[in-house]
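Sequence, structure tokens quoted for completeness.
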Amino acid sequence: MNICQQSVSRIITTVSNSIALQMKMFVKFPSTVEDINQVKQKFFEVAQFPGVIRCIDCTHIKIRSPGGMSSEVYRNRKGFFSINVQAVTRPNLEFFDLVARWPGSTHDSFIYNSSSVKQSLNIGDLQGQGMLLGDSGYAVSSVCLTPFLSPNSIGQEMYNNYHIKTWNTVERTFGIWKRRFPCLQMGMGVKKETVVAVICACATLHNISKMLDDVMMPSTDDTDDNILISNIDNVPVQENPNSNGFLVRQSIVNRFFYCIVF
């Protein structure tokens, strides 16, 4: 197109920032009881796991070294520089919430503990009327359910199976998101602030495309490890059998998963 690289960089920055500013209009939690109940029902239809209103996970977006004294905090456990992006998703593979500001060395659980998502669940407001599903990189709590690290009963094993099937919707969301926008898969060589804008812009455009039933939606049939750079050697959070979260999780097993018959 006979446009110099400097002009292209300025255009990318300007357009990405403009779209990112609209993210709150399209990436948001349901606002009514009816909408929340509909989300619960859709999650239940995935794998019959009760009471789920959102799933959470993080994924790494490659960046170039930001330079400076603090650049090493962006190096993740795989050894490359990245931004660790936290996403909360809905059952139809849209984003409810996206946080794209933490360096690659930041643990998923730290990002969650610092987020408004956890605050809304703990407060129990309209957005918190249900359970959040996370993987073993998060601590189990009365509002955030994770798999059993060492299941010791049929009920716990069934809980894990149904949990993973339901939680996997967030991984599928990452998969189609990165297939739609290859820069998220391959990484970006622009400055860190522009990378954050591009990530937010891509999440906004992804939700818009879902709302418009985009016929060009990428396939979600398989999971490509080269695309899903998430949970990079994530260290499981150790469990306390006497914690409130552990007891709540076990009560769900006793109520819903011991009565399953094949």
